[in-house]
Amino acid sequence: MDCPRTPSESFRFVYTINRDFISYALVSMLSVIRSQTRRCEFHIVHDGDIHDADQSHIGNLIQANGAVVAFHRVGESFPRQFAQHSDWDVSVLYRLALPQILPAEIGRVVYLDGDTLVRGPLDELFNQDLGDSGLAAVPEAHPAVERLGLPPESAYLNSGVLAIDLAVWRSKRTSQAMLDKVMQDPDRWVYPDQDILAVQFAGGWTRLAPEYNVTHRFFSGPDALPLPTPDPHVIHFSGQGSKPWQTWRPHPFADEFWQLAEAVRDAGFDLPKRPQKKRRWYQRGPVAAYRNRRRRIRQQRRDKAAAERQMRRAMLQARDREMVLQFAGEMTVRRGPFAGLRYPEAYSHGSTLAAKLLGTYEAELQPVLNRLLAKDYPVIIDVGGAEGYYAIGCAMRWPDARVLAYELQREARAAIAEMAAANGVEDRLVVQAECMFGDLYGRRGLVICDIEGGEAELLVDERAAEAFADSDFLIETHDLFRPGICERLHEQFAATHDVTVIDAILDDERPRHWSLPELANLSIPRQAQVLGERRAGPMQWLLCESKHPFPHRPTTAKHAA
Fold first, then answer.
1. 175 and 44 housed in the same domain
2. 3-class state of residue 42 by DSSP
3. Which residue, 254, 277, 336, 349, could crosslink 412 as a Cys pair with Cβ 3.0–4.6 Å?
4. What is the structure's pLDDT at 555?
């Protein structure tokens, strides 16, 4: 995308590359220029293999696109001998020494790997409060936390996109401390730059939202995460063999890469042609033509089914809005434990709004919640916060508790913040993007989890007994997506918790369980439409109450459906 420029201080971007990666990094730089609101200033750190002719060639392309570029050669004191201990090129470590390499007048920078594609403005990265660490990055679930011997509550990070305050690093001699670690135990660093950053900061860095570093874990395999937004800010073509120039396999953002690659190629830089799938002998001739025809037909059917699902989704959303206006137009939850919760707009992320406003949403849990209200939780964590129904409802009912809401989707996180302000609890609510195992480790409070099958990756862990023993958990399990996950979690928590299984009631049976006066004149099928939650099938919750009991607090009024 091309963004209008504003006449203010330039954004400073840093790349650390060798000569072989010039062309790919230039694709990234062009994507930066075309997506930012301010003039861009690039700083390329290299080891002397980018010659004067290369620098002039690169400078001409960057200047022709309205930006400026400077080159910085790494000094002789850098521990290049690390290359003897690793398959990684030593240039991956240059980002650790940026305060020493770049001029002293350069403060805030954003570091980008050369295999990134920037698609949106990065103003937030330059305005982000980096705290005492002077570092912001996107966290990543990774077994390296255990391998590196980090505290289990720590989070690992991906170093492909970093916001760095070089002034803070200079004042604290952070770079020198990290470079000293390089050769103290060089065989320890499997992913050198990330490992050293993780050890140096041990979780004490500012988290960026995942849309600023969308890696292969959002695209690869059946367990790929959903995109945090349909229009991510930074695509990171991470993973060997999965970059656009390495494989013909489809990637949703490969076309954008190759469009920019043409501009780099036209400027005289060498770039490989786009890989094509090889056609073998059985993929030619009349048999192949027949197979291709059948493949096209199957694809057309899939496309038609996807279009029909989208139409149905839009129809159901329109029907939900209609029911909200007809039966709950005041946009305030009428009954249940969260009665009085105000919605600033008619928006519900991933679920029906009418049932929430009428107070029957997941009403199977209301007796449980009314019982939990007697417990004095210091912290409440809502994993899969959606638009904030549970997070803000809990903040209202537990006025002394600190509430953390984790929600991967950018739009939903904005809705949580808006609803928190509308209900006056914004000072006690912290909104984060992705929840990691370490975020729950050793906590003492209530954890509510609904992440559409992601509970398998987040909660199933051999360290669960020590990690989760002190908290109560209310988990929506999704055997439809992860067969057997309910039973597995039940077995895992049974040793440290008292576990109760709660069955969900299907939509067509809900009017028989909850009869509302405002729906009395409707037929049973129509009531089922209004109260329905549109679940894909039978499901269950697990209530896991810690065997280390919580103190009680004064009795709270109940608002049952």
1. yes
2. strand
3. 349
4. 60
Instruction: Tell me the CB-side half-sphere exposure of residue 223, using CA atoms within 13 A.
Output: 7
Burial label for 342, CB within 10 Å (0-12, 13-18, 19+), is middle
Contact (Cβ atoms closer than 8 angstroms) between residue 144 and residue 195: yes
In a domain, residue 344? The reply is yes
What per-residue confidence (pLDDT) applies to 5?
A: 45
In a domain, 80, yes or no: yes
Q: Looking at residue 502, which CATH number applies to its domain?
A: 3.40.50.150
DSSP state for residue 84 in the 8-state scheme: G
Q: Which of 347, 363, 353 is nearest to 323 (CA)?
A: 353
Q: Which domain holds residue 491?
A: 328-546
How would you label 22-34 residue by residue, b for 16+ Cβ within 10 Å and e otherwise? bbbbbbbbbbbbb
Strand partners of residue 403 = 380, 429
Q: Are 357 and 324 in contact (CB under 8 A)?
A: yes
10-residue block means of pLDDT along the chain (561 residues)?
56 93 96 94 94 95 96 85 78 90 94 96 93 94 86 90 96 92 86 92 90 90 84 92 88 94 94 83 72 87 85 74 76 92 88 89 93 95 95 95 95 95 95 92 95 91 92 94 93 95 92 88 88 84 95 66 55
For 43, 152, 154, 380, the CA distances from 440, given in Å and listed in that order, are 39, 10, 10, 11
Q: Is the dihedral of CA 419, 421, 425, 429 positive or negative?
A: positive
Element (H, E) at 404: strand 402-406
- Residues 137, 169, single domain; the answer is yes
pTM of the model: 0.86
**What is the reported pLDDT for 556?**
54
> 56 and 50 in contact (C-beta within 8 Å)?
no
Same-domain pairing of 359 and 291: no
Domains of the chain: total:
3
Q: CB under 8 Å to 476, separation ≥6 — which residues? A: 449, 450, 455, 539, 541
- CATH number assigned to the domain comprising residue 60: 3.90.550.10
Nearest alpha carbon to residue 166 among 126, 214, 195, 113: 126
